[in-house]
Write a structure and sequence with these properties.
The protein is mainly alpha-helical. It contains 15 helices and no strands. Helix 3 runs parallel beside helix 5 and helix 9 packs antiparallel against helix 10.
């Protein structure tokens, strides 16, 4: 495979950051995200009632979570196998197993584990999100987009769902994959409105505007985002390209100078210096 040009790297940067963030939150969703030794209230309330096998399963799950968060996927999978051997219906363990499979690129196993988790806990918003994201990204899944969107909506419909912005952003990315661009724009807008301090959401929305030739809207999103959050090389590069498309020389110089000063060795600054605005 040929190496990406600096401009291509610049254009894909926002998506790379956002995908990593979406996967990271998905991986830490629900009881799984809690540090070892700090179970949730439900677990604490019924700890005295739990059978020895369930208590052992929870211990193995805590270990698996710690290994997963350290990037030790194979060790985490071994601990999950032991947890599920003690308690086959432990939903957080099934959820985490699905995410380990997903990170390992084992799509079918990830789907199977998450589907089982959702069967056992149909109102679990994090499991619904994780399954929807897996089906959306699965290179061979034959699941209609409507079913994927319905899973995201199931997550979003749960009261007090803590990661609604994450699910709106993921839904927007999935809508882009199937070329439902107006719907994607609406979903990414909703994500940004819910989390205005999260630059990745603004950057994804601005990039979608740019891809649709809506350079004024892209510029407006980035101007607002840069007032709230520190800029990145990706956001400054897209802002500079938008200003150039709008023939706003003052704004272009502002973004270009900031890009050179703060990220002078980045692929985006290299693309700027080479004039690779449209690649």
């Amino acid at each position: 495979m040929a190496p990406l040009s600096p401009a291509r790297v610049a254009r894909t940067g926002a998506l790379t950051v956002a995908l990593a963030w979406l996967l990271g939150l998905a991986a830490c969703s629900g009881p799984v995200w809690r540090p070892v030794g700090q179970p949730d209230q439900r677990q604490a309330s019924d700890a005295s009632d739990a059978s020895p096998s369930r208590q052992l399963a929870r211990l193995r799950l805590a270990l698996a979570t710690a290994y997963y968060q350290q990037g030790q996927d194979e060790v985490a999978m071994d601990a999950l196998k032991q947890a599920l051997a003690s308690d086959p219906d432990l939903v957080p363990a099934l959820n985490l197993r699905g995410l380990v499979h997903l990170r390992l690129g084992q799509w079918s196993q990830a789907q199977s584990s998450l589907q089982r988790a959702l069967e056992l806990a149909p109102q679990d918003a994090d499991v619904a999100h994780n399954l929807a994201w897996t089906l959306c990204q699965h290179p061979q899944a034959q699941v209609p987009h409507e079913e994927v969107a319905a899973l995201f909506q199931r997550a979003l419909a749960q009261p007090d769902y803590a990661h609604a912005a994450r699910s709106w952003a993921a839904l927007g990315l999935c809508q882009q994959r199937v070329q439902r661009l107006p719907q994607a724009q609406a979903s990414l807008t909703q994500a940004w409105l819910l989390a205005p301090d999260h630059l990745s959401f603004a950057l994804l929305l601005a990039q979608l505007h740019a891809d649709r030739g809506q350079w004024l809207e892209a510029s407006q999103v980035l101007v607002q985002a840069h007032l709230r959050t520190p800029a990145t090389a990706q956001s400054l590069w897209l802002a500079a390209r938008a200003a150039r498309k709008l023939d706003n020389q003052a704004l272009f110089r502002q973004w270009a100078e900031q890009l050179r000063q703060e990220f002078g060795r980045s692929p985006q600054a290299l693309a700027l210096d080479k004039g690779l605005f449209d690649e």
